């Protein structure tokens, strides 16, 4: 027992005698990997799928790394993703125009092991989680009304709503997911520019998917617009006066019983959406003086 304690103390002493801590900040851009179906594009002649990943876009990271010796270390990073627009639904047909996109606005964290191949090249491998944020859907819809609708609304609102007028709708819906767990892997090259500072470039892979938990419509407005582009009725529908059959909030579940399928139900089957990506990051690192350097004074 005494021998084991001496060995452990000797190991801890050797680690702390080298121990070095560094912080870094980086930014970069990622493209989607292993893209899954996200939406559709519909025209009179055909319908086609759109594929992608919500992990595509600009990202920033702040990392703290603790090296136990000149080869191995542990890394904790916090990051923010400003995702690119992904086409969810696009319709171009007579009387109907729809343009709906979705993009990620997410905070994440990763805990990784770091291995130095030499003084310049290193690798990271670890676990990735999403801490917060949302997938934001932004949609525009223009739907031409029938002549009977135009005549009836003209009379109801006491204003001229000619044939060919349309309902023009803009809305925003925020989607939130369940707690996910993925992995991160990276390989990078670090170049020292002074005793404490260095710059680096790295290739990084995120492997993660997000299961939807709930969503909420946070903005909604429908205007009646004449063929010449002028507004006949403003705020025909709003967030406080949603169209029949439109739910402000929706909960995503793994199964729906027959009794759940009633008008006004806010339950839908859950789906997984992709956040996997492959990116390039550039950044700067500040290295604090190691314990071994202090002991040489």
Automatic annotation (TrEMBL):
Residues 1-19 form the signal peptide. Keywords: Signal. Residues 9-210 form the Outer membrane protein beta-barrel domain. Pfam families: OMP_b-brl. It comes from the Bacteria. InterPro entries: Beta-barrel_OMP, OMP/PagP_B-barrel. This is Outer membrane beta-barrel protein. It comes from Winogradskyella marina.
């Amino acid at each position: 027992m005494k021998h084991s304690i001496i060995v452990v103390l000797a190991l801890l002493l050797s680690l702390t005698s080298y121990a070095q801590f560094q912080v870094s900040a980086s930014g970069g851009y990622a493209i989607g990997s292993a893209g899954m179906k996200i939406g559709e594009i519909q025209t009179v002649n055909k319908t086609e799928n759109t594929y992608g990943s919500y992990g595509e876009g600009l990202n920033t990271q702040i990392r703290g790394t603790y090296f136990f010796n000149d080869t191995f270390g542990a890394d904790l990073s916090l990051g923010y993703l400003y995702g690119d627009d992904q086409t969810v639904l696009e319709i171009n047909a007579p009387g109907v125009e729809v343009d709906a996109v979705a993009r990620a606005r997410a905070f994440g964290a990763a805990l990784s092991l770091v291995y130095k191949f030499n003084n310049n090249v290193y690798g990271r491998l670890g676990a990735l989680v999403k801490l917060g944020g949302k997938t934001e859907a932004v949609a525009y819809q223009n739907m031409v009304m029938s002549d009977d609708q135009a005549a009836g609304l003209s009379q109801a609102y006491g204003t001229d709503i000619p044939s060919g007028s349309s309902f023009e709708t803009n809305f925003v819906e925020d989607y939130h997911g369940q707690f996910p767990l993925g992995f991160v892997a990276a390989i990078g090259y670090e170049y020292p520019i002074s005793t404490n500072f260095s710059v680096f470039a790295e290739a990084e892979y995120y492997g993660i998917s997000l299961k939807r938990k709930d969503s909420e419509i946070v903005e909604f407005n429908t205007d009646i617009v004449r063929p010449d582009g002028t507004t006949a009725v403003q705020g025909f529908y709003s967030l406080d006066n949603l169209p029949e059959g439109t739910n402000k909030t929706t909960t995503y579940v793994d199964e729906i019983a027959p009794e759940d399928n009633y008008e006004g139900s806010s339950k839908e089957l859950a789906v997984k959406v992709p956040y996997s990506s492959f990116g390039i990051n550039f950044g700067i690192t500040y290295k604090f003086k190691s314990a071994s350097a202090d002991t040489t004074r």
